[in-house]
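2024-03-11 09:14:02 DEBUG pipeline.ingest accepted 1 chain
2024-03-11 09:14:02 DEBUG pipeline.ingest length=64
2024-03-11 09:14:03 DEBUG pipeline.predict start
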Amino acid sequence: MDFTKTTKDFARNPLGIVALFISLIYGFASLLLGTAADKLESLERWPLLIFIVAFPFSVLWVFF
């Protein structure tokens, strides 16, 4: 399936827009951790790790 068609389908309803925004934020956090993990100290990595683990559960809790 084409990526642009999928995003257009998601953007047609408000919940799809929220899902696209959540995946964008989660993708940026994962990209940041993946590229800068070797340059960060362990205390600097913890907030990113906690965000990556807790963010999906917090969004689920908000919608629940």
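2024-03-11 09:14:41 DEBUG pipeline.report The first helix runs from residue 3 to 10.
2024-03-11 09:14:41 DEBUG pipeline.predict end
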